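[job 0412] stage=complex_fold ligand=zinc ion status=START
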Amino acid sequence: MRIYTSHLIGRNLALVLHGGGNTSVKISVPDLLGKERIILFVKGSGHDLASIGPNGFPGLILENLMRLRNLESLSDEEMANQLRINCIRADSPVASIEGFLHAFLPHKFVDHSHADALLVLANQPNGRKLVEKALGPNVVVIPYFKPGFDLSKAVADAYDSHPSAEAIVIMHHGIFTYGSDAETAYSMMIHYVNKAERFIDEYIDRSRLVGLDINDSKIQPNDLARLVETIRGASSFINAAGVRQRFFVEVRNQPELVKASLSPWAEELCHSGVMTPDHVTRTKNVYVFVDQIPDEDAELKKKIDTHVSDFRKNYDRYFESQNSGEKSNLTKLDNSPRVFLVAGAGLVALGFSVKWARIAADIAEHTIRGKLLAMAMGGYRPLPENHVFDLEYMNLQQQKLERTEEIELQGQIAVVTGAAGAIGFGIADCLLKAGAVVALTDLDETRLNKVVEILSGKYDPTRLGKFVFDITDYSTVEKAMVEIALRFGGIDLVVPNAGIAYVSKIEDMDPQRFTQVMEVNLGGVFNIIKAAIPAMKRQGTGGNIVLISSKNVFDPGAAFGAYSASKAAAHQISRIASLELAEMGIRVNMINPDAVFGTESVSSKLWDYIGPDRMKSRGLDPLGLKEYYRQRNLLKVSVLAEHVGNAVVFFAAEKTPTTGATLPVDGGVPAAAPR
Ligand code: ZN
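[job 0412] stage=complex_fold status=DONE, emitting structure tokens
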């Protein structure tokens, strides 16, 4: 029942958003010697109520926590320590910072949410009176306290002096309900949140909410993509370790957000601060308002650069003014914005992972909706920024933002063409392993689905996307680039890998098929490189192009003219790209693999096609053919798709200042050595 009603609360976005809110239950459990003890099972930090299971609830020895209620105060560090050392299992997650609060309330079941409706009321000029009026006499309302020991004591004291209260509201934070069974605690939550919603409904001045006509001001996807790429580049920064931190982007453009972005309140919606300090860790306290998207890229970049630099200056000022007195030893967090409201376009939210960008977007969406209601009711009056700062820089809160792993390609967005083939699959696998987000593209949707399915089982599915298009058609490729930008935020790494083979002597060659091979193997490479350049330029953060070329470029074979010639041309166009793109910090390198056979799950299309012919000409079976190629190279190794993938990761990680280079991944074929 505890898990069931936790899910009910967690899945209702009007109550809690991503990891917000918490629930608990107190149960008698025998220890190893058979002695019964009351254990408080409370939501663990980093778990989401929507999907929490039994392991998400660390068990704490209630008696030990209760003893501490007599303390005058308890530091955040010591509180965290107590939550750890009083846990009955060493492998449990750390209990929520509201763990003591759950301990101090006497009820078996305790539920806590950050319901939007209560935040709308609490953020009114006369918020406290309105909350009391809306919820009635059986609710105790206490002022805002930073989550922690003081808040836990204040809530417990409030309950002790009003033991008949059915709920406790903390201004600018949320509501606690409780009961001897899960149903009572949950129904009280719903009862009081409904009351708040109905109150707002009655109280609100509807005429101030009526909509605008948004039909004329719809922004085209192409312009939105330009904006997103520019924002992503301008907001990225070099961290203390000297590594570039890039963001992922989530775009939201539901009609009501577009309306909000065009309303006379748009600017105020951005600058008036979070509805509850808890949101600051995901969205920062203020958003950036962009009034229009200029047609010229240079103008757009100038505009966004100015917005981001103003945001950073303001953030630094806020940090300097708050980081004083006893708090003066704090380390400043990054000063980049997380949310942009764009007139006519809606919301653009940023995060260090795709998931975090979505969380920021969800919170911003609810915030804008809530603020509009608050403004239509009377006004929006959030907490002063010292409270916001205290929460943003609270040790426990900073821990909650699970550190992003420092892996090689963290933050990078890669596009791999021909991802449904053996080498493309191997490359995508290696890129995902190295921390990148990967757009897998191919013309063959059936095969691509299979690859996406395998990789989604191995990695967080939010880190990969499927894009089906024909690389020989430039306008289609351009459109796909827009889709990728709107899905993830932009492009840092392009891996032109798609290719087709054709075995024929020149004398017998079908001119049409020759043209087709050139269109895919050369035209496709040209198209994807050309289409990626504007996006990379708008980001202004460099990038990499790694062409999957071929051993045949240096060491061609008879009856393989169309393939070898097209690959040689693609190699050459990539070398030219390295000359032209260096000034933008974009590196272009080539990888020359040889004889990469697929795996059982993803075969090589190339070898499916040329294998039988090669076997026939050499009188070999499939295994014999693999063995033949193994014995042919100096190192006597089978070349795997993974080896090619490792080479791509090497270039994308920019470990050496290299561009225009060719790296053979062929086990050593002297005739194919670059010269
Ligand atoms: Zn809370």
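Residues 369 and 427 are 42 Å apart (CA to CA).
[job 0412] exit 0
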